[in-house]
Design goal:
about 290 residues; Purple Acid Phosphatase, chain A, domain 2; 6 helices; about 15% helix; about 25% strand; Metallophosphoesterase_sf; Calcineurin-like_PHP; Metallo-depent_PP-like; metal-binding
């Protein structure tokens, strides 16, 4: 279900389609109920695919999105990757440095913290990573400089209720491209074995992964995966999404997916790839409620 974010102090209407370049994203709410969650109910706000660049997603808009999310008072905040602008849009946009973006996002506040992962554009469209062969990365360095936690194939124990839970963050599954068009054409930095290594068997775990495709493996170690990347296809016409950046087409385009007894939440994100155009797929913030029943 979708609900506009009410903020009477601001004149902006919730985002609507491709005209929503400077407006606040709409709020999309999902409820995941699973008996493996034996803890008190928890709310999580998900921010995905900001792709910050002028004038489409400006630093000012990011600041207002931070206010919007903080006003929701979630228990925890997930930043699902892709802070950087798509390189294909550079010729008609102004690139915003990662340090400036992360400085704004560091104002996010939640009792259980704000946690971030890297997206494919945070690798492929980072000049520092390209110039150093991946030895350095401006998004990684910005997170460290501003104290915003970044999970790179690792897990953190989150104290919430009796026993707490594990938040597992993996790196991008499409961090680069190789020649050819086969299934191995993407360079993957995702290492699930390293990421889940510290998680005790049977412990409640949430997997934060930029691309949704890992979910198809039916990994039993996390009852819930939270992703972005797809932009919901960015264009939806007559009930169809012509192109989704996933090996599974529109199967994981957006929303709440249930497969193999597990749950997947895919945010349709905020920014743009290729062109600053969204038709039928407005920018969104996801508010996720997790309960045991």
């Amino acid at each position: 279900m979708r609900h506009p974010f009410p903020d009477p102090a601001r004149p902006e209407a919730p985002a609507r389609g491709w005209l929503a370049i400077r407006r606040l994203p709409r709020l999309t709410c999902h409820h995941v109920a699973d008996p493996r969650w034996t803890l008190p109910p928890m709310t999580a706000a998900v921010i995905a695919d900001l792709h910050v660049g002028m004038p489409w997603v400006s630093p000012d808009l990011v600041g207002r999105i931070v206010e919007q999310v903080n006003a929701l008072r979630p228990d925890i905040i997930f930043l699902a990757g892709d802070l950087l602008l798509d390189r294909n849009m550079w010729w008609f946009s102004r690139v915003v440095p990662a340090a400036e973006i992360v400085a704004i996002l560091s104002a996010l506040r939640a009792p259980l913290g704000a946690w971030s992962i890297l997206g494919n554009h945070d690798w492929g469209d980072c000049d520092l990573a390209r110039d150093t062969g991946g030895a350095r990365n401006s998004v990684i360095e910005a997170h460290a400089a501003h104290g915003l936690p970044l999970l790179r194939n690792e897990a953190r124990h989150i104290p919430h209720g009796p026993g707490g839970f594990w938040l597992v963050g993996t790196d991008s599954q499409r961090a680069g491209k190789r020649r050819g068009r086969g299934p191995d054409r993407y360079v993957s930095h995702l290492d699930a074995e390293a990421a889940f290594a510290a998680v005790p068997a049977g412990a409640p775990a949430i997997h934060l992964a930029h691309e949704p495709d890992w979910f198809a493996r039916g990994d039993p170690r996390a009852f819930l995966q939270v992703s972005g990347h797809t932009h919901g296809g960015q264009i939806r016409l007559f009930g169809r999404t012509p192109a989704v950046p996933s090996a599974f087409g529109s199967r994981y385009a957006g929303g709440h997916v249930r497969e193999n007894g597990n749950h997947l939440i895919v945010s349709r994100g905020i920014g743009y790839s290729g062109l600053p155009l969204r038709l039928g797929v407005p920018p969104e913030i996801v508010l996720l409620t997790v309960t045991g029943t």
